[in-house]
Design goal:
Layout lengths: L1 H22 L4 H7 L14 H10 L3 H13 L3 H19 L21
Helix pairs in contact: 1-5, 4-5
Length: 117
């Protein structure tokens, strides 16, 4: 049951992020171009599993997204708001389909479960 709730939570965060992106009338071209950019953090796995998991997790926790959103809101910088919403949408989409934060043991070992091959 907790795993199911985490997937549903991801879906709701995704929908809320996309809704607020739409409400703010940000560029959909920017959204499309940057939506999968956090996955570039997987390049850290070319070094080793530990560096890979650190890089991946840095760009797949809500901490960075919240910092971008707060900074954009406080300083009225639309680009930061847009980037925060894109990042939160990406993370949420990953969570909703079962991709979680990575353990340093292996790319497929996540906080949600072991990703199937």
């Amino acid at each position: 049951m907790p795993k199911f709730l985490l997937h549903v939570e991801g879906l709701f965060v995704f929908l809320i992020s996309v809704y607020f992106y739409f409400q703010n009338e940000f560029s959909w071209l920017l959204f499309i171009l940057l939506f999968f950019s956090p996955d570039l953090s997987m390049l850290g796995y070319l070094i080793n599993n530990k560096i890979g998991s650190i890089c991946y997790n840095l760009f797949h926790t809500y901490i960075l997204a919240i910092i971008l959103l707060m900074a954009g809101f406080i300083w009225s910088i639309d680009l930061l708001l847009a980037l925060g919403l894109i990042l939160s949408a990406h993370i949420a989409m990953d969570r909703s389909i079962g991709y979680g934060l990575k353990y340093p043991s292996h790319f497929k070992d996540t906080h949600l479960h072991k990703v199937a091959s």
